[in-house]
């Protein structure tokens, strides 16, 4: 049994995610990848870009489907952040653009990892809908070999992973020449999380999901029909973190409407995984309008440096975004962080 020493709000990163007076006005996702000892890449989903008006996002903003942040480190500590997107005809445009070779109308980059000195980013390929509901069309993969260059010079190779049965990349982890995946079916937040794997040469070969093996409890199968559910509920965005101090794998899960962080752990990737332990009630839920919380993930590079679990979460108005433009909504739809101290 894991013993939790304390769980507290982690404010050391807050200043790097404060809304800009003229520029970045908030995003969700907030997945981080340490590119080298001096640079951390942050992946963001839907993003507001524009000008603040007093204590609100105001009305002069654009809405794009993804952006990135480049965080500079000094002596291993965050020292600065630059938000980046593209522009078209002097208007903000998503940093990662889709092409006819993948399904959907736009990309939500939600997870990534470095494999054999290549940056690999998995994205949900998403269809636009009239009512702004989420319609995931499939999965796209991007590889970037020159990821240490300025992002404006990145050469992005994009292909269709050919997976539309849910989300294939809820969590990623490399072990013993395999890339492991936390995988959901279409009933995420209801059914359990599955485990998949592929050889890490998937990047060299631009492999698709037909090379994906699913863990069945006793062996691995190329079909998900016999896959076991490691824990419940599954979710669309998390991370897998191995803690050397405890010799345990940690991850997070959640149900967005509950506004709680659930922590899970296991001695092996294949399990058995613990029952989810509720460790934190998200305070931003206490609004006059409904809020839901999601994209709850452990940041490995921060956790390794501190010896504790550093977890981020995203918040959003449920059922609309009008309240994001008010003073009351200014402190949501931006990353927030929690520090979990483990005993023993």
Task: Spell out the key features of this protein.
5-stranded antiparallel β-sheet, 24 strands, mainly beta, about 350 residues
Kindly describe this structure.
The chain is built from 2 helices and 24 strands. Helix content is 3%, strand content 50%. β16 (213-215) and β17 (220-221) form a beta hairpin. The chain is globular. The protein has 344 residues and is mainly β. Strands 2, 3, 4, 5 and 6 form a 5-stranded antiparallel β-sheet that branches. The chain has a 5-stranded antiparallel β-sheet with strand order 13-14-15-16-17, with no helix packed on it. Strands 1-24-23-22 form a 4-stranded antiparallel β-sheet, with helices on one face.
Strand content: over 45%
The stretches of 5 or more residues where confidence is low (pLDDT under 50) are none
The quaternary structure here is single chain
N-to-C span? 10 Å
The H-and-E topology, N to C, reads as EEEEEEEEEEEEEEEHEEEEEEEHEE
Short account of what is shown:
With 344 residues, the chain is mainly beta.
Question: How do the helices and strands line up, and which of them pair or pack?
Answer:
Elements (H helix, E strand, L loop, with lengths): L2 E7 L12 E15 L2 E13 L9 E4 L2 E8 L2 E8 L1 E3 L2 E3 L12 E10 L2 E10 L7 E10 L11 E5 L5 E10 L2 E8 L8 E6 L2 H4 L7 E3 L4 E2 L19 E3 L4 E6 L6 E7 L10 E5 L9 E8 L1 H7 L2 E9 L18 E8 L1
Antiparallel strand pairs: 1-24, 2-3, 3-4, 3-5, 5-6, 7-8, 9-10, 10-11, 11-12, 13-14, 14-15, 15-16, 16-17, 18-19, 19-20, 20-21, 22-23, 23-24
């Amino acid at each position: 049994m894991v013993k939790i020493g304390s769980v507290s709000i982690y404010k050391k990163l807050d200043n790097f995610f404060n809304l800009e007076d003229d520029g970045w006005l908030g995003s969700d996702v907030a997945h981080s990848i340490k590119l080298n000892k001096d640079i951390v890449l942050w992946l963001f989903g839907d993003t507001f870009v524009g000008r603040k008006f007093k204590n609100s996002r105001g009305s002069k903003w654009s809405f794009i489907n993804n952006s990135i942040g480049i965080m500079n480190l000094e002596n291993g500590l965050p020292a600065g952040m630059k938000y980046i997107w593209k522009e078209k005809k002097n208007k903000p445009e998503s940093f990662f653009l889709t092409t006819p070779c993948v399904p959907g109308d736009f990309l939500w980059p939600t997870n990534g990892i470095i494999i054999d000195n290549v940056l690999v980013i998995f994205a949900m390929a998403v269809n636009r809908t009239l009512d702004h509901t989420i319609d995931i069309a499939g999965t796209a993969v991007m590889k970037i070999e020159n990821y240490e260059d300025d992002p404006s010079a990145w050469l992005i190779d994009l292909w269709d992973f050919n997976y539309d049965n849910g989300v294939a990349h809820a969590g990623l982890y490399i072990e013993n020449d395999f890339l492991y995946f936390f995988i959901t079916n279409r009933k995420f937040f209801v059914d359990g999380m599955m485990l998949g794997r592929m050889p890490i040469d998937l990047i060299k070969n631009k492999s698709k999901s037909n090379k994906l093996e699913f863990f069945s409890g006793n062996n691995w199968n190329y079909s998900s029909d016999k896959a076991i559910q490691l824990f419940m509920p599954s979710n669309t965005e998390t991370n897998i973190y191995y803690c050397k101090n405890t010799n345990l794998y940690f991850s997070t899960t959640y149900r967005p409407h509950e506004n709680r962080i659930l922590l899970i752990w296991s001695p092996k990737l294949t399990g058995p995984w613990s029952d989810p332990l509720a460790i934190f009630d998200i305070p931003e839920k206490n609004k006059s309008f409904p809020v839901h919380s999601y994209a709850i993930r452990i940041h490995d590079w921060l956790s390794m440096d501190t010896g504790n679990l550093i977890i981020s979460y995203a918040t959003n108005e449920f059922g609309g975004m009008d309240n994001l433009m008010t003073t009351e909504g200014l402190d949501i739809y931006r990353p927030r962080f929690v520090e979990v101290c483990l005993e023993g």
